[in-house]
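Subgroup meeting minutes
Present: P.N., E.W., G.H.
Scribe: E.W.

1. P.N. recapped why we're keeping a running log of single-chain structure predictions: easier to compare across weeks, and new members can see raw inputs and outputs side by side.
2. G.H. added today's entry (432 aa).
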Amino acid sequence: MASIKRDDAAPPVARSAAVFTLVVVTMLYIINYMDRMVLSATLPLIKADLNLTDTECGWLGTIYFVIVAVLTLPASILCDRWSRKKSLSLMALLWSAATFLTGAGSTFSHLFAARGGVGVGEAGFAPGGIAYVSGSFKDSVRAKVLGVFNLGVPLGSILGIVLAGALAKANLFGLGWRTPFYFFAIPGIILAVLVLFTRDYPTIGIVYGAGTKPLTVWQGLLAVMKTPTLLFAYFGVGAMSFVGGAVGHWLPTYFARSRNIDVAQASLLMGGIIIFGVIGPVAGGIIADRWMKKRSNARPLTAAILALLCAIFLYAGFLIDSTSMKSLAYVVFIIVGILLFAYTAPAYSVSQDLVPAGMRSISMGILVLVTYGTLAAYAPVAVGWLSDVLGTPGHPDLAAAFLFVPPVGLLGALLFYLSSRFHDRDIKKLKG
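Output recorded in log:
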């Protein structure tokens, strides 16, 4: 398939300023995921301390995603039409305060409200951050740049998992599981100030195709809804985020139960998986960018292949783990971790490729809205509920519940493939 020529004009800010933006915003993304994953690492301790069911533990993850789904679009519009750096700074302050309040919670209701507060702060960060960094570099390196940005996911996850487990076990000042929530709030506040010193690019109007008259936000949203490439990609990310949400929220607890180990040891196992996952975002972005030189729809197609492999290996991992070959199963889970992170760079690039510059945050906002408004938000509670239902009273069965997750990954692969089928037509429509 022939490559379609793309606009690769000079970016709106100097390279040094763009690199500084990428570094600072990526560091904020790391903190974003640390504050998200601290709950997963400490969940067994919270469950025991507050006497929660698996379903209630699942809701502590799901409320975060529901709030993100509700607020992500207005937050994304704020980023695109006001200021990227000011919006990101405000968001970081909000989620850091909510993380601190989570540590202060003493009942399920308190934790439920605080985790919802984390969602309020983080609702627009991924859309705004992705728009900020992708808009600061040339189009030809977009997937690679977003691969670097998406390092925030594995790096933040591993730091959140490992440090939270270690801090909770250390029981500093007698705070127990609350310790990491208090500590993790601090760097978010510092970076919220630092991001104000990055250089934002100008806010411009929304223009589609050959038109010269800027569209309203509503007209831009309607144009997106008529772009199959974007819609299939959005729902594909939704399916894969369900897989990632289930694994991220419950796998440390699964390790603790299946291997009869404490949260610190389970966190180290999860951290080992995530540290290899660091390979994923950059590798996925580089593969997609290089393949795009020969095949114009390489980005959604790369995401489809990676999603397919992820689903296959995840299913194999749990089947092998049900036997005595725990070490082999762990190697398979490491491959799953790499694949779970690798699809993000090419998939997120599609959300930026198929919209005008004035809608980059909004496009990612729609992606997050679709992602968490459909499947991903319900991954923690769905797996928790299945664990309670498939187990016996007092003995939930996470292993059985996890077997329902890989088919959702297969759905994601199919949706990315369908996105690739419409890609070239929709690019021509955008360029006019």
